[in-house]
Amino acid sequence: MRGVGSTGRALVGLTLAAGCSVPNIDLEGRPCPCLGGWQCEAETQTCVRGAGENSGTAQGSSTGGETSAESSTGTPPQAAFDIETFSADWSTPQSMHWTWELRGAEEDFRAFELWIATSADALEQGDVIIFDRDVNPELGRFSLANTNGVDLVVGTITDELLPGTEYWGQLHVLDTAGGRTVSPNVAVRPTTAEPTSSLVIFTDDDPFPPGFSLPACFSRSAAVPSEGTHHFEFLVECASDGIAACEPVSESAPECFENLRIQGLERPAADIGGGDFADAFLEIDIAIVPPDDAPAHGWWGDISIQTSEGWRGLYGVTLRADGEYRRYQVPLAQTGLTPETFDGVIQGLRVGSQWTRGAVVRLDEVTLRW
Ligand SMILES: [Ca+2]
After folding, report:
1. Residue 156 lies in a domain
2. Cβ neighbours of residue 22 under 8 Å, at least 6 residues apart?
3. CB within 8 A of 320, min separation 6: which ones?
4. What pTM does this model have?
5. CA 301 – CA 260 distance, rounded (Å)
6. CA of 330 to the centre of ligand 1 (A)
7. 182 and 209: one domain?
8. Together in a domain, 169 and 52
9. Of 350, 275, 362, 274, which Cα lies nearest the Cα of 307?
10. Any idea of the CA torsion for 30, 31, 34, 39, to the nearest 10 degrees?
């Protein structure tokens, strides 16, 4: 039963991979217009912190940043939330991971929005790309669904970005009083440059050694590839014990956890040197077709690779289920591998999540790039 295993759920204590943070940005004296959390001083036409705040950086406010009411009646409500340590902690050529801590009550929470732009001025002027719950479903939740413990939503990945480009971002939290809290700081980070080297793990051809067979529910298919001629497709059926099944079952559960695996490989990428490792990443296209338009997001996903170190992955990734392919880029450095522990040979990859019965999961175009 290689390819699809029954590992059950092992979600307790796992959170989004931690990473380094971007230094706070000192905006004191910056020419107007000013970013959120700062005011334009009329005399000098430069930005100063709001009244009562004298920190030298754009972060550290205890007020939770700007708060505004979305209705025009009455005074703005008391900030329901404080946004702390908002930063962009890693990036790939097309993706950026943003992270934060939020203080406040779940009962007051409505949604997150992440506003990003390619310059500070564009962000200030609202010339932005907005990632909301329609784009990244986790932004509509205070904590992730389908986890054993409580995993607060403390990060998200923005995708389809330009390589080698600086992105400026600000986090908004919408509350049930109609208010909007904006992060007191702006985070900024560049996406990495387009890589020059790659190792194809799967595009169209059967990647397995001769004689290797997969269960019938997880198969190479020509139905709807993201590119080329073929992809892998998993038809989700769940037994009553919440374990994935390959055949229709008399008693079925609405959801089940399963790791979709492509393994038994020996793909050498030995020339990823120490200097290249920092920007090396695994790229994979994933589509989830929900059954009858029912919600079927993979709230807590796991994208991992297998090397001589065993399985190492990025955990807590939300996999959007809108039927369309999405390209996920996972830095090797965020999986726990290091230049010292990575032996340069890819033995397999897996995508794990709690899947919804009746959904179709598609994987395609798996490539290591550096
Ligand atoms: Ca393909």
Report:
1. yes
2. 87, 88, 89, 187, 188, 189
3. 135, 136, 137, 288, 297, 326
4. 0.80
5. 11
6. 19
7. no
8. yes
9. 350
10. 80
Closest CA to 139 of 100, 193, 186: 100
pLDDT tens figures, 112-164: 999 999 999 999 999 999 999 999 999 999 999 988 888 999 999 999 999 99
For residues 272 and 323, state if they share a domain: yes
Tell whether 172 and 210 lie within a shared domain. no
Contact 234, 357 (CB under 8 A): no
Q: How far is the CA of 283 from the centre of ligand 1 (A)?
A: 13
Q: How many angstroms does the Cα of residue 363 sit away from the middle of ligand 1?
A: 8
Residue 41 and residue 90 in one domain: yes
Instruction: Identify whether 120 is part of a domain.
Output: yes
- Inside any domain, residue 39: yes
Q: Which of 134, 159, 190 is the last residue of a domain?
A: 190
Half-sphere exposure for 28 (CA within 13 Å, toward CB): 9
Q: Alpha-carbon distance 213 to 283, whole Å?
A: 24
Q: What spacing in Å lies between the alpha carbon of 175 and ligand 1's midpoint? A: 42
Instruction: Determine if the peptide bond prior to 248 is cis (ω within 30°).
Output: no
